[in-house]
Amino acid sequence: MASVVLALNEPDTPRASHVGSTAPSSPQPGESPPADKFTDPCGTFDTNVTTPYAITGYWVVPTADRCNWRRQLEAIHHVGGDTVVRIGFGLKPRQVNAKGQILEEASGNETPLPDQRYAYCVEDGVPCAKAAENELKAANPGNRISWNFVYRTDEQYGDGVFRCPQYERKIVVGDKVFFRLIASEDGSDDATCDFTSAGKGYHLILISAGTTDSLTELLDLGDRFGIQVFPALPLAPRDPTGATKANPRHVGTLTTLTRRILQDYGDRFTGRKSLGGVYQPFELQIRDWAEPENVPTLQVYAEQHRIVEQELPGKPILVSPYLDARRRVQYTSTPKQVAAGFKALARTGVGIIAPQDSRGTGKVGLFWPNWKNKPVDERLKPVVGESTYNTAYYGGTRDYYREMSQARKELLEEGIEVRLWANVESFEPSATERCGTQGTRGRTDKPRMDTAVTLVGPYVEKIISYMWTDFYTCGSPSLSEEIARDWDRPVAIQAIREKRQIQDGLEIRGYHMQDAKVTLSWPGLETPRVVDSATVGWYDPTPLPDLPETVGRIWIPVDWASVPDGVWVRVDVTSADGRKAAESVYFHHE
Fold first, then answer.
1. pTM above 0.85, yes or no
2. Which stretches in the chain have pLDDT values below 50?
3. What is the DSSP string of 92-120?
């Protein structure tokens, strides 16, 4: 996945075009909208789903322009999206100066300056951090603040975020909103609120909040569009010895903040169908850990996830680890090793694991087993160089998801239930066209996304994608516009030998398969065989277990006696109007 984006898009930042984003930012006079539309201060929005694609969930970036929320969710809904995942913010330890002002993050040997975001937080002329310590010392001179933490969000909270309101409060300074929380050093979050009987060390958490609550607005939009929202948990502080690891030293403060926020969610959002669950934003590579219980990031996961189970029972935790299949890089993993890591991750209490397919970063390739000696895709060469797939990677996308699917089944036998989704990356390793704030990585195209859908294929029950902003919205036409124009092109995901009554044949599963023509070919066959499924075959749209509900299947008769043993049969699917699937599927005839 691309690196987590924590910066808010300011209202005056130019935005890329969006599918369905023609609504004005202010109401226009006119007639009342029809029943399938609604009007609010951002304009009139359509709640019809018109171009449903195989991908049904997307990451979105926080934005200060609330009308942009509406435009994004309308556009996501327009292409069949029913899930959005919020990028999150991080809890960070900070130093304070002698005046009690929060300082910026230390960088090199330079003395950090006061952080202007938190400089606005003043109580009776005293910086908020100093004011908090003064009050604690007034309760007992032995009290002290041993660590100061900051947390930035565009949400607002209710009273459920406070444990001890005599020392914790919402602070409004002009148009700035802050929340002051006090955490015990040991993470116990003592409900007695006894600050007087003994002098203790405490941690201050100073939250820079939104002027309005973005989550309430997102959930309201989710109710309108039938979209479930997964807000992010607070991101754990990073270990100073390695930025890819969570810092277990601060797990107590992290769990206190997590508990407070989720208590508030429970108070305000109980029963909201649009609250789909929560997202664990700390990214890690999924691998076979020798001692999972001693991995700091997994320890932090388990602690945070325990709080979720207590405060939001029934709401799943979504996590999206990345894969790395590169042979020439240390600490990468084979498909079997990733399957073992999948089990370890599931045991931390997550409900949904949506591994990144890692094609956008070039860490895994989209290829079939019979392609292993082919040169890699040109767009992968910036990452793996001139190479064949077999030289570059331990396996392809399909190999990894197949092994994780098997691991999921084995976990079910142990009584551990976890859902397997796929997160297909909508970008390329290097940019030919810059996408907004997304750095050096560039957008991809719909054929490559169709290929990604094909190769995660029959092993996942839902496909989501990182990320809507800006990879689906930049360029002309944008990726979202490409999807809207070509949404019903067939996408095959699997071919299996199957009998129908007394006749032998081939069943092909996928999206938009009705009335498709199927072309079979294999090495040595001079003329490919074309079969019209609408004439001699059979179509069944009935949803299949553990697959997205829009996956259907067609069946065609095949004379297997005429197919040589051991060949890879290439299966191409073409729609009735002549559009061929972007990617073939292969069946190994044994």
1. yes
2. 1-32
3. EEE-B-TT-PBBPPPBTTBPPPB-HHHHT
